[in-house]
Write a structure and sequence with these properties.
Distance between the termini: 45 Å
Helix content: 40-55%
Order of helices and strands: HEEEEEHEHHHHEHEHHHHEHE
Largest sheet: 6 strands, mixed
Shape: globular
Oligomer: single chain
Structural class: alpha/beta
Number of helices: 12
Strand content: 5-15%
Length: about 350
């Protein structure tokens, strides 16, 4: 597999933000025959009999919320009157996503600049990119077979080979890279999943409108996240992702469920503390460390930067992944703790 293809799949996996597993995982027996299905409830299906095993599934057939009303917050500094708006977004899109309600575009129009989660200028820095690539390969003479179990390795190869994603060159990539690759391969089996997203829409729009564009994070953050994922946790993620993705209907309906939560503004249902909830207890410390680096530390850093942007007096439209607002340690909560007035706009 070429390096370019690996990075494409890795990007797809990152966009999906570990969407293959959460507390609301819906299990459907994908070996039932003739796979004629109808949606009966939120993510549930009735299945008639026949003999077929689906290789792909259409996410649009599961989505319930056709008119999105995503959560957005207005942040005000009562001392200065400075304001900004924060929109939580999903890392994938469907045919319904871009039909956003008027309150979203109204907020954008009021602002002089757009703040994105990723600092794209920093990500284009050759030195940062080289350091990033160095962190997705082993440089100590080992291969992924030295870092994950034989069972997980063989399970992943069987799955990736089935969908033409595996080559021997991949053995040099890290266990965390394999977890992303397996996730990316699974996502490619979901029909009508659009990788163009809301943040790219507003980045393009801001460029056309001559508005300022700022970013919060560079590739150094992604490097830190990769280093925080232990071999044991990566091993579990690889194996569990394959297990879940083999049932493509359940995998797809789970993505649709998460989309519906976002579209109705139910951000707490997407709290990452609930992901990978079927892990063994001996991984609890590993997962706590991963969450601290992947979510909570990032939330604190982003809240600090957004506070600085508020002090500038400019009015910004902020577009950040919705999980950064979930639970009690979200960016909205942190800004409220700093003394800002944070109001949900819906």
């Amino acid at each position: 597999m070429s390096r370019v293809r690996f990075f494409a799949a890795l990007s797809a996996a990152l966009i999906a933000f570990s969407a293959v597993s959460c507390s609301h995982q819906i299990h459907v027996d994908d070996t039932d025959t003739n796979a004629k299905t109808t949606v009966t409830g939120e993510g549930e299906k009735e299945t008639t009999t026949g003999t077929t095993e689906k290789e792909t599934d259409d996410i649009n057939s599961y989505i319930k919320v056709k008119k999105a009303k995503p959560a957005m917050w207005k942040v005000t500094d009562d001392k200065t009157g400075n304001e900004m708006y924060m929109l939580g977004i999903m890392r994938f899109a469907t045919k319904y996503t871009m039909d956003l309600p008027d309150y979203v575009d109204d907020a954008y129009q009021k602002c002089s600049g757009v703040v994105l989660e990723s600092d794209f200028n920093a990500m284009l820095d050759p030195q940062q990119f080289q350091e990033y690539t160095n962190h997705i390969v082993y440089n100590d003479g080992t291969t992924v077979k030295d870092h994950i179990s034989k069972e997980t390795y063989e399970t992943a190869i069987e799955y990736l080979s089935k969908y033409s994603y595996y080559s021997e060159a991949m053995d040099g990539y890290t266990a965390n890279g394999w977890a992303s690759q397996v996730n990316g391969a699974s996502i490619q089996r979901v029909e009508n999943l659009v990788m163009e997203n809301i943040d790219s829409k507003y980045m393009t729009k801001a460029t056309q409108d001559g508005k300022e564009i700022l970013g919060l994070e560079g590739l150094d953050v992604q490097i830190e996240i990769m280093d925080a994922c232990s071999d044991a946790l990566s091993d579990f993620m690889i194996y569990d992702t394959v297990r879940r993705a083999r049932d493509i209907r359940s995998f797809t309906s789970n993505l649709a469920y998460q989309y519906d939560c976002w579209a109705r503004g139910d951000v707490d249902a997407l709290d990452e503390e609930y992901y990978w909830n079927d892990r063994s207890s001996d991984l609890d410390d590993d997962y706590a460390k991963y969450l601290e680096v992947n979510l909570y530390k990032r939330n604190r850093n982003m809240a600090d930067k957004l506070g600085e942007f508020m002090e500038s007096g400019n009015k910004y439209f902020v577009v950040i992944g919705v999980t950064h607002f979930s639970g009690t340690k979200g960016i909205d909560d942190l800004l409220a703790e700093k003394g800002y007035k944070v109001e949900l706009v819906k």
